[in-house]
Amino acid sequence: MIFEFIIIFILLFIILGLVYQFMYDIYMAVFIVCTTFYCCYIIVKVVFYMRRKKKAEKALETQIVPKANSVKTEIKETQKAEKKEDQNKETLKVFIKKNLQQGFKTSVIKDALIKQGWPKELVEQALKESK
């Protein structure tokens, strides 16, 4: 970007030198036009550079934000799973206590629950806690 500014400045300087040497009567008008053009060119280049920089920053933020959101979502899902597991454990405790009161052995209750698809660890925890 700086290289472009320098090249354009040199070219405008050459044009001004030629106009001054061969067409002195329009020198001031050409000088004003060249100066205005160069200033506008610099302003436009700087504005576009800043916009590009902001877009790059926004793109970077959008890449970071979803990761943070996914972590929050993962935490919420984990909390929901824990709550559901606690509810399931309470259901198992009630079921186990009810069946123990009816006279079933713990091994029979455990086998029946595992056959029904309950996780073995959860069944064992519920059995320990319900005794």
Write structural notes for this entry.
There is one protein chain. This protein is mostly helical. It has one domain. Helices cover 89% and strands 0% of the residues. The protein is built from 4 helices and no strands. Helix 2 crosses helix 4. The longest helix is centred in the middle third of the chain and has 75 residues. The model has no long low-confidence stretch (mean pLDDT 82).
Provide a quick synopsis of the model.
By secondary structure, the chain is mostly helical.
Chart the SSEs and their pairings.
Elements: H1 2-22, H2 27-101, H3 106-115, H4 120-130
Helix pairs in contact: 1-2, 2-4, 3-4
Q: Given the C-alpha coordinates, what overall shape results? A: rod-shaped
| Low-confidence sequence ranges | none
Order of helices and strands: HHHH
Q: What is the SS-derived class? A: mainly alpha
**Discrete helix count:** 4
**Any idea what the radius of gyration is?**
39 Å
- Tally of domains: 1
What is the count of β-strands? 0
Kindly, what is the distance between the CA atoms of the first and last residues, rounded to a whole number of angstroms?
A: 78 Å
Helix residue percentage: over 70%
